[in-house]
Amino acid sequence: MNKQQTEAVQTAIIYSTVNQFTVKNPAFTKGGLRALIFNENSNGLAKAGAVVRLGRKVLIDEAKFFAWVESQNQGGK
Description:
- The structure is a single chain.
- The chain is of the alpha+beta class.
- It has helices spanning 3-10, 18-24, 30-38, 40-43, 45-48, 62-72, and strands at 15-16, 51-54, 57-61.
- It has one domain.
- A three-stranded antiparallel sheet has the order 1-3-2.
- 6% of the residues are buried.
- The mean pLDDT is 88.
């Protein structure tokens, strides 16, 4: 594998539907995730770019979503 192929593999974006995401990450329920997506403009999720829409389909960019989750951690402050 050459350097360009290696970089492409490392930067692969993983998109999941709400159902797929909750199966892979059982800490998040479908209803809870849908509530986060519904309020994406007020909670910062839209600004993070974690939600992608293709027509009516809603996809979650997993790397950006978990980066947003980490940004929500106030460290007990």
